[in-house]
Fold:
Amino acid sequence: MEKKSFYITTPIYYPSAKLHIGHAYCTTIADAIARYKRLSGFDVFFLTGSDEHGQKIQQKAEEAGITPIEYVDKIVAGFQDLWKRLNISNDDFIRTTENRHYRVVQEVFRRIYAKGDIYKGEYKGLYCTPCESFWLERQLVDGKCPDCGRPVKEVSEEAYFFKISKYADRLLKYIEDNPDFIQPISRRNEMINFIKQGLEDLCISRTSFDWGIPVPIDPKHVIYVWFDALTNYLTPIGFLDDPAKFKKYWPADLHLVGKEIVRFHTIIWPIILMALDLPLPKKVYGHGWLIVDGDKMSKSKGNVVDPIGLIEEFGADAIRYFLLREINLGQDGNFSRDALITRINSDLANDLGNLLHRTLNMIGKFNDGVLGNPGPLQLVDKALIDVAKDTVIKYKQLMDNMQLSDAIKLVWTFIGRSNKYVDETMPWALAKDSAKKDELNRVLYDLAESLRIVSILIIPFMPDTAQKIWKELNLPGAIKSSSIDDTKWGGLPISLKVNKPVQLFPRIEVEETQPEAENIQLAKKKTTKDVNVMNADNIGIIGIEDFSKMDLRVVEITAAKSVPKTEKLLEIMVDMAGEKRTIVSGIAKFYTPEELIGKHVILVANLKPAKLRGVVSHGMLLAASKGNELKIVEVDMPVGSRVK
Structure:
């Protein structure tokens, strides 16, 4: 029986500079999905690549005193090196400067031109060079590009136009008839509103520069970079040269893109396909941005994170785990070095690493490294097996719905349950009683079997770690040949001799350069008109009875705005499990109101209300400060949780 195909793509990244952690996030998501689909028996084609044409690249090359192809060759080699280091399992890497792509782009232009959907005219309007985007006056925000916020310039030149307005109603109907086509729903609604405002015919050629694919019927023109780039998805699957392959993989099952380019992929790209009489992709998913320590990455801010350095320091699997576990797909997510180290120490070293190490140690110590014939099931054993079976069922459901973060958390819940099983059964005590040998064998088998199942479930997220666990269990072959069906309980062979444990994730020790009291301070409301930060030196010793009087709760910030006529104060609305509160906090110099929305923070909920600049504050947010820096304390816990 022929395998069902699955075609997944990332955006093709623009080589104007090195890739950052946000690009790594997108590609890691796609890789995890591709690996899961292979695990589930699909014939997967996973594509990524580089988008190498356009005015910005030509300008960068001129500034560097080299040709455009020399400029992009060096940067694209860095792309490919990063994906190798991050263990990305793409099946092809498309470069838009390749001859195979030139032929596809020019053929697409010819076919749409022959259909009468491309015409020559003159373009007069506004153009954003960094985004390679054309805009109408009404679409600008404060006179600037609505995507990147940078200035646009007026251009006037002869150009070819694509009649996308002709297809607006047809596209709108398609989106409304196929609710899964654009995901998440928030992106879908944005695109529907954009189309309803009216689509103008798209300028698809330029004459003011020459770094691009020539228009086949008029070589003094080069094809607009987005018209060129979007057709990359057709090139590697045989659009021109392999009809059987093209039939197998098209339409794409999933285009995974950043939310800032959803418009190109859900308006321009579908209309190109409609003009070619080709089926549309099954789904375009616009994921959120990865921000750093609460702030969007920017070269000017100096907070762009290079993933190469992180991989060299912490390993690829630790980075993959953090990115996939920490961020819910579709939402913006925060990256911080401190949070990464915390996850490595708690989840990878303590939970997974400790389970593997103690299990193999006990098998070695109590059974000479060999799994004995397990005895009858006890209630405690059945409880673990039930959790394992339930985990696999729910895992499949979550992964099929691209809920990667929840799937990882589910696996780690099972890892935690397995660690608890050790404490419940106390194999060290069983080993002291020869009459309980069968019971000991059962416990050791169940632990090793739990690890075998975990190793398969983490293949999409942590492929190297999965293989290491497989090797330490001394299972035959490579784990990559496993199937999701192999997670059925009982697949571990009896009499297997396991290997000695090797530490998966050594704990990362963080040096404290200052006493804790100097690093963590509470934002204390004063009786004066402003809110400042308490000096830690003024904090006296308290007893547990004093601390127990504080009601600390996890709340979500739902709205925030500046308090008029103040520089420091923000009026913040929080949700505490259905109870709404107003908080006045002196953090305006450290956060804009927009940055705070959606954060889960800690509230001192039983603080006496106080009026500040005419606003009654019902509580206080916890913050940490050092020198001139201050950050509110964020937690990954449900709203209403008590902090103890």
In short: The first helix runs from residue 21 to 39. The radius of gyration is 28 Å. Confidence is low (pLDDT under 50) at residues 512-540.
